[in-house]
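Example 4.3 (complexes with small molecules)
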Amino acid sequence: MKLQIGVDDTDSIKGGCTTYIAALLVDRFSQLGIQFTDYPNIIRLNPNIPFKTRGNAAVALRVQIPDRTYELVRETVLRTVEENCRWGDERTDPAVVLLRGNPTGSVKRLSREALTDIVPAHRAIRTVKNCNASAVCYGSAIGLVGALSAVGQTLNGDYTLELIAYRKPQNRGKLRRVNRASVVRMDRMTTPGTFNNYDSDNRRVLITPHGPDPVLLGVRGETPHAVARAFRLIHIREPVERWVIFRTNHGTDAHFPNTLLKQRIELNRPVIRSGVVLERPKRIVGGHVFFKLKHKNSIVQCAAFEPTGKFKEVVADLVPGDEVMVFGGVKRNDRGHPPTVNLEKLVIRRLSDDIAIENPKCSRCGKHMKSVGEGQGFRCVRCKLGSSHQPKLVLRKPRVIRPGVYLPDKRAQRHLTKPLSRYGFEKRRWSKEPPKGTWHKP
Ligand SMILES: [Zn+2]
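Answer. The structure with zinc ion bound is encoded below.
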């Protein structure tokens, strides 16, 4: 029988890692001689959900097993989760879903919604009951949404790969001993087959997390071969416990579906909205840039935060009348203001003229004159020379930015954000072949 296993929410802010459980299961299943029909999947869901742990990721394993081994597989999954969960941490509500056969329409629908919306736990419970699945929740049922969504996201369209290497228990919590120069070199040698592993703008290595979790590093790329080669190019000065190649929706913009998503502004959901820049962007303390976007009769505040780097400078260069499309997450604004779209992507479609209107200059000294009053002309403060006929000056400033797609600096991009290097290279479908070659190592 075909069996799809979803696991979610074994993480907590203190460490532990859902993908590590998947990696252990890959090893245990291999020892049982179980056949994988896909790489294990990491599925990121709506990144704007406030109660997520770190990345709002769930995992799915897809296997083909003889009917008689179902109980053994189920026991193996539950035991592995139970042995490796961060029990006792608040907000850790592990859940496991086992679904026989292919995901049904209702499971797929629920998992699509989980990318752009907030799916209540009771919907997941009902869906599990109505399809050929069984589920185990160890805390509240909130983890069930992720586990079922992971099962339902079969990544048949665009996808990417990530090779994740894990640390030996005795090293967890210590500094990661990964040679920086080798990462820079790897990035240079393997781009665009790999992506978002090094942020050259900020000279920052992106493959290593910083917490106490078991992940040593994760390398992102387009093919299993590309991430495996990249991994071999990295010099690691600590023992690697195991590594696994995952197939994932990282870097695919999966949370921004093609169907012109809701232009609706709803808290904690992604939004795509086209419109016209209403006024000059404002820079506030901390370096964040805000502007107002007008779409038909509604106006929405958009924000580009400081860590987005050059991106926020592009946003700061917008002028009233620019036609743009914003992609982002709708978040509540702390200071009681209306919700803000936190920008993840900006498409500049048409630039308007950057026009500044100034008072005419004095014919004697060249300084700008002051207005005497509405319709009464101008006067030079220095020469006292007056003029009633000179028109205001209309100045057209050259534009620095150009139409196009703009993203935050790599270090500030979300897991799901599609990097610029992938535009035009999106995959259309998955071959549905089982993993080939060496794709994991205990
Ligand atoms: Zn003058």
